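Appendix B, record 7
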Amino acid sequence: MQRNWFLIAVLGVLFLFGTVSEVHGQSFKQWAITASASSEYGSGDWSAQQSLGEPNFYPNYGDSTYAWAPASMNDGLQWIELGFLEAVYVDYVEIYETFNPGAVVKIELIDETGRPHLMWEGTGGRAATTARVFCIKNALVTVPCNKVRVTLDTDAVGGWNEIDAVSLTGSYDSPWSTVQGSADAVLQWASGAKASSQYREDRWTPEHMTGRPDVYPRYGDYETAWVASTSDGGQEWVELFYDEVVYVKRIDVYETCNPGAIVKAELIDETGRTHVFWEGRAVVAPEESRILMIENAKVDVPARHIRLVLQTDQVPGWNEIDAVSLIGTRSMARSPMTTDPFAQLASIVLRLGRAVERAKEQRLADTGFLQELEQILEDLSSLRY
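Structure tokens (predicted):
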């Protein structure tokens, strides 16, 4: 009897440990606790300190003393640097722009040694006549950071460019170690591209998918993204080429106009053989730019060539792709397979739960279908073996 109680206690500790570990790995949001800037309109009102903590003016729009503004309007490059309590592996940054948004041209993450890392760079331009949350997902920086520097081109958007708050969302545990593997992880941007068709020879070409994104996170019809020769024309495809052969773990597709038309993703190995690693159906998505993350859980062959198939007649309008990153490892990394079928089932339930959460966040499937899946997962989780 004593041994049984001991076993129960040990299992209880392991259960609690597993629960805490799972929570520890979840992303959480932080608000800035320190702030400095290249310039500020006042030492109190409109100062960098006004960007600390949660928004206190958003979603209102207009000139507010509760937001940071540079010393002068239309005065070239200006920056604000925010510090956060915890250093985390950053998932995304949100910038609450409350007056003349669109001037942000660069976002850098700063690690605990003070070293800056470029997270995103783009061009400024008037974005809206309302307040907005400018959300940038981190696809580049793989070290924990506790500061964000936001650079504005104040000449790009006339008038005072004001920021109410900046949030940093991330986790203590690196997603790169689980998604990308170990120290041999590689993130690549396409160095070459071709497509079944293109709108013009000089603009909207396949070559505009190479390199880092230059449209995202903006949304709309931009000539520096690829688009097919006709809208709603049926099946189209694009192929992306990368410099280094890797075991592909994931691709991130930056869709910047009428997303949702992608129905298939394939790897093409060095012999030219094609391997399907994901298939889905075209779904009309919200009219906003997005990153479609496609995990590879099927194909264990090295490759540096991918093919995406789109069904453009299922998502009305021009379906545009800005860039595609490829994430992989130089060596095959396999997780040891457990021989316990119940442990395998628990692992599958956990992975499926995470996939459902990701699908909800990115609106990749019907809401009712996802709710039904969640109920099935709850039923499975409640089983006792």
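Remarks on this record: The domain at 28-173 is CATH 2.60.120.260 (Jelly Rolls). Residues 2-24 form the longest helix (23 residues).
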